[in-house]
Automatic annotation (TrEMBL):
Name of the protein this chain belongs to: GNAT family N-acetyltransferase
Stretches of the chain forming a coiled coil according to its record: none
Domain of life: Bacteria
Domain N-acetyltransferase: 2-147
Keyword line: Acyltransferase, Transferase
InterPro entries in the cross-refs: Acyl_CoA_acyltransferase (IPR016181), Bact_Acetyltransf (IPR050832), GNAT_dom (IPR000182)
Keyword Hydrolase: no
Molecular function, one GO term: acyltransferase activity, transferring groups other than amino-acyl groups
Length: 147
């Protein structure tokens, strides 16, 4: 059974094994997420922001850190997806999709659209399968979805 839930400050340490796993794969985005959370730079605590984790049989197998106001726009109408990661052992099981569905449900309450940036071809295909459109010519965004 997969459980998706919002992370609070008491849960952030539960991501440690995922961070180690992501580093072994050559990814740095979860290390940045945890460091920014610890320093207070980004705690996903503002109105319209959230951090989600996925658990399978009480084991943390994914995180989407998560939903922020888009820092690259002046208005408050755009949200931004950040730092999605699923454990290799949990990939292709729908966990990333469930995390993104939770993010999108939350985002619809606050924003008119969501943006993100990725240079990973598999992530590109994944986000397009969720309804995101590819953006060209932007230094800060590669994908957008409008609600």
């Amino acid at each position: 059974m997969i459980e998706i839930r919002k992370i609070g400050s008491h849960d952030i340490h539960r991501l440690d094994l995922l961070v180690e796993e992501s580093v072994r794969e050559g990814f740095r985005h979860l290390t940045r997420l945890v460091n920014e959370y610890a320093s207070g730079v980004n705690r996903f605590g503002k109105d319209g922001e959230a951090l989600f984790m996925a658990m399978r049989n009480k084991e943390v197998v994914g995180v989407c850190g998560g939903l922020n106001r888009d820092p690259f726009t002046a208005g408050k109408e755009r949200g931004r997806v950040r730092r999605l990661y699923t454990s290799p052992s949990a990939r292709r099981s729908g966990i990333g999709r469930k995390l993104m569905q939770a993010v999108m449900i939350e985002a619809r309450k606050h924003y008119k659209c969501l943006t993100l940036k990725t240079d990973n071809p598999a992530a590109d295909a994944f986000y397009r399968s969720l309804g995101f459109q590819v953006i060209s010519g932007s230094d800060t965004d590669t994908h957008v979805i409008f609600f």
